[in-house]
């Protein structure tokens, strides 16, 4: 095996090994829900502070 082929084989082996690595990140559901609630509260406070009228969703029976 010539040196170039050996180098290519080693590079392919390293690349395929690196491609098989999986990183699992765990996000606790309770913490994610609290963060979402906090963001929603901040958005509503910004909207109320801007002086705009509150947006109310249409009733279930209303059609456009």
TrEMBL record:
Keywords: Signal. Residues 1-31 form the signal peptide. This is Uncharacterized protein.
